[in-house]
Amino acid sequence: MSATSTNVETTSPSEGAPLDTVASFTAPDRRFVTNDDASCRMFKADWMEFFSHARPWVPHVIFIPLIVAALVAALRADTAGYSAVLVLVLGGLIFWSLTEYVIHRYVFHPPQWIEDDTRRIVALLGSGDAVITALPTLRHKFYFLVHGVHHDYPNDATRLVMPPSVSIPLAIVFWYAFAAAFGAASPAVFAGLIVGYLAYDTIHHGTHHASASSALARIWKKRHFRHHYADSERDFGVSNPLWDVVFGTKSSAKPGRDE
Question: Residue 253's Cα: distance from chain center in Å?
Fold first, then answer.
């Protein structure tokens, strides 16, 4: 069904007034559109659609050489010995883990009704309909663009890792921010940040597409599936639960995966 053929209202629970004539605000029957390894069309423009996809190996091809170069630069710095570089890299890792948590919790996730409303709208669209065009407000569009597509299509293998069109500009921002903050020590901190990011992307892909053959992998998978299928307002840490424990957002519920 195309979005243009529907005549159901989208309503904000706080305002009680229609926002657009696309879908209705009610609690969803399930927390995804499909669990298959399937994609939706996000954009009308083919070039934008192309750059919204990325295979899981792409970040490694781009960023492993960058990590090596940053570590070489750190070791060549006059003020940095091996032990100092190690400490700075660990600092970058910790900084990444907090960044991952903060972005996931406060940027990726809007109020629950936006998530639910977006999912109902997407479920009404035809396979060739561009989702971003069909969504009624900027809040809906932004949520789906940065994270909603993953919650609605959680096993889409081409949208599990951050596309280079986003990751490269972000890396440039962090590089210059660290240079301003840490000076000669910045390459080591930056290397730690990128190691953390690659770990995040790798673990995230594995939780959806790799078999949980070890106890640690099963813990990661269960935690992340709780976030997807039971309560998207908890378990924001993908690569580790540290900040969920610190800020009280670690869930103890069993995964509620809907099939």
Answer: 22
- Return all residues near 197 (Cβ < 8 A) that are at least 6 apart: 59, 63, 96, 162, 167
Say what the pTM is: 0.84
Mean pLDDT along residues 240-255: 85
Q: For 158-185, what is the mean pLDDT?
A: 94
- 29 phi and psi, to 5 degrees? -70, -30
Three-state SS sequence of the chain? CCHHHCCCCEECCCCCCEEECCCCCCCCCCCCCCCCCCCCCCCCCHHHHHCCCCCCCHHHHHHHHHHHHHHHHHHHCCCCCHHHHHHHHHHHHHHHHHHHHHHHHHHHCCCHHHHHHHHHHHHHCCCCCCHHHHCCCHHHHHHHHHHHHHHHCCCCCCCCCCCHHHHHHHHHHHHHHHHHHHHHHHHHHHHHHHHHHHHHHHHHHHHHHCCCCCHHHHHHHHHHHHHHHCCCCCCCCCCCCHHHHHHCCCCCCCCCCCC
Maximal CA-CA distance, the chain: 67
pLDDT at 33: 92
Provide Rg for the chain, Cα atoms: 20
* Band (217; pLDDT cuts 50, 70, 90): confident
Q: Could you report the per-residue pLDDT of 21-42, keeping only the tens digit for each?
A: 333 334 455 788 998 999 999 9
Q: Structure tokens of 141?
A: 């569009």
Rounded distance between C-alpha atoms, residue 229 and residue 155, angstroms: 13
CB 101 within 8 A of CB 16: no
Length of the chain counted residue by residue: 259
Rounded mean pLDDT of the chain? 86
